[in-house]
Amino acid sequence: MNIAAGAETNNGRLADKPVILQMAELARFPYRSIGDRFEVIRYWQIDEPNAMLARDGAKVRGMIAAGSQRIDDVILDKLPNLEVIANIGVGYDRLDIEAVARRGIIATNTPDVLTEEVADLTVGLLIATVRRMPQAERHIREGRWAKSPFPNSPSLRGRSVGIVGLGRIGKAVARRLQGFEVSEICYCGRTRQADVPYRHFKDIREMAAHISVLILTLPGGPETKGLVDADVLAKLGSDGIIVNVARGAVIEKDALIAALRDGAILAAGLDVFWNEPEVPQELLALDNVVLLPHVGSASQKTRAEMIELLQDNLFAWFEGRGPLTPVAETPWQGGNGE
Q: What is the CATH number of the domain that holds 171?
């Protein structure tokens, strides 16, 4: 398809208002600014979205990808003139990226601006899981402290930590952990990274047998689905702790529930789940898991910066400047708006 961007006028204003399809609501989204530049169709507010797409899909030139709606051939076939998809977040597994690339559509994400926030939360979730901080607070709230002291918790100090997904966020987590007196930091990946000092493992099972804390910061998608299975959990062992800020599907759900329930691992800290926002009742019933509602980047400051970058990608594209942060599968070759 022709992916030439919208015409530019004086002062960077657009000659017309391209139609943008926004898939889900975003907190603190600057509707007024977007509304000045684009005509926005709010997909989640439409009673019959299929009828709307059949009627208006050909008008759509841009998309804001957010929420749980899968962007695949079913949606894309109804958007024949779609040029650019601005995805909120670093991960873009909500996109069928092969289908997007095949159509010549550019996809962007929001890297870097959320790295430090997610790393902060990851380490916080790890400490809360190891030291059983939510359980200790419940001990007070439920009036049990006056009757008995809260049991001593495990410690993070002296533990060996393995990170799966040593990208921007994984490296930021590792930097923070260097100040916590852990015994070793390792990482798992297909290839050794020359610029990092940590021990490298190619195989997650080999690494799991060597460590007592497993942190998941890798991308989601078909290639990593079910990567952490019952065998990996068994090798992590009864003193093992797992923290997942990646995607729920990276861990086999039934295997994790069984490992926590049966003591095959010690504890888990989870910020992501398999069918969000639903959380399995089996997990809710367990006392050795800390659960967060996918809030890794959800500070006011960071979400505002993510939305600003998402918005800037759309502005840049339709002003003829090209995307700011295109994803690897849809590389930008230049030339839009020429």
A: 3.40.50.720
pLDDT digits (tens, 9 = 90+) for 242-275: 999 999 999 999 999 999 999 999 999 999 999 9
Domain assignment present for residue 224? The answer is yes
Task: Name residues whose C-beta falls within 8 Å of residue 247's C-beta, 6 or more positions apart in sequence.
Answer: 91, 93, 219, 220, 221, 224, 272
Tell me, yes or no, if the pTM score tops 0.70. yes
The DSSP symbol for 290 reads E
Q: Confidence band (pLDDT; 50, 70, 90) for 32?
A: low
**Residues 297, 26: Cα–Cα separation, whole Å:** 13
Report phi then psi at 65, rounded to 5.
-90, 115
Q: Report which of 138, 87, 140, 93 is spatially closest to residue 111, judged by C-alpha positions.
A: 87
Annotated catalytic residues are: 247, 276, 294
- C-alpha 185/C-alpha 158 separation (Å) is 11
Rounded to the nearest 5°, which phi and psi values hold at 30? -80, 70
